[in-house]
Design brief:
With 273 residues, this protein is of the alpha/beta class. Helix content is 14%, strand content 29%.
């Protein structure tokens, strides 16, 4: 549950651009093992991004979301160039980060094609856990930030922001004490929850189930390759995502992926599911 180093926990961004009005009907979900360094010398999606978007475009996806720690921004990589020949995709969501001894999250960017022009809509992760958070800050997040995350029929909760709903050991149920779930507009069909590393605590699954009530989809996607303090790598045999709708876990189509892309790709067809 890594949070952006550029935004102290509990602080909100000052930029107030209008959210794009997206309508996602077929979503590409993309993850990778972030330990892998490509021939271009970077441990990010930059090498595979053009091929991934081409494949998803051929699958008639209209949006793509990537696991966090997505792209290292630099002059030598022209991200906009990856969008030039896309026919169907009109939204690409990813996080910029700095890669060094430690990965450092920066801004999350929703690239969206509006009136034929690719534009940027950005925000940053506000918190990863409620530990140390003041109640006023959580309420501020729900009241001021959540409306910025609603973009047409989708809403984005970054990584541990899904902890805005709480699990109670007393009754073993998830509750919404801060009004996070109820603050998300009724027009939202899909809650997108891109993540840095797989969250292993059992209650995370229950929180996603809870957020998926009332016919909503909750899509969480993360990176493989997390290394523990003892040097062991977190074992993950399944795809690095979970999909919930109405409290039930769903499977998604996994299209054939060329070996050279070295990523995992799922496709969620909202209209047919």
């Amino acid at each position: 549950m890594t949070k952006s180093s550029n935004s102290p926990q509990g602080s909100l961004p000052t930029a107030r651009a209008q959210p794009p009005n997206l309508h996602i009907s077929k979503l590409g979900i993309v993850s990778r093992d972030y330990r892998h360094e490509y021939e271009n010398g970077y441990r990010d999606f930059s090498k595979s991004l053009p091929g991934v978007l081409k494949l998803l475009d051929e699958q008639d996806c209209d949006a793509a979301i990537f696991s966090l720690f997505s792209v290292v921004p630099r002059r030598s990589f022209n991200l906009r160039a990856c969008f030039r020949n896309l026919r169907k995709i009109n939204a690409v969501m990813l996080e910029e980060f700095h890669d060094g001894t430690e990965r450092c999250a920066r801004r999350f960017v929703v690239w969206h094609k509006t009136n034929g022009v690719w534009q940027e809509y950005e925000f940053e992760q506000v918190f990863g856990t409620l530990t140390g958070m003041k109640e006023d800050d959580i309420h501020d997040f729900v009241k001021k930030e959540v409306p910025r995350r609603v973009m047409g029929n989708c809403c984005v909760l970054l990584c541990g922001e899904s902890n805005g709903v709480k699990y109670s050991p007393k009754d073993r149920k998830v509750h919404d004490p801060y009004g996070l779930a109820s603050a998300i507009s009724k027009k939202v069909e899909i809650i997108l929850n891109p993540i840095h590393d797989r969250m292993t605590r059992f209650e995370m699954k229950l929180k996603r189930e809870f957020l998926s009530k009332n016919n909503r989809w909750v899509v969480s996607v993360w990176n493989k390759g997390k290394v523990y303090n003892n040097g062991l790598v977190r074992n993950e045999n399944r795809p690095a995502w979970t999909i919930f709708r109405n409290g039930e876990e769903r499977e998604v189509e996994v299209p054939l992926t060329p070996d050279e892309l070295e990523v995992e790709i799922g496709v969620l067809d909202i209209g047919r599911s």
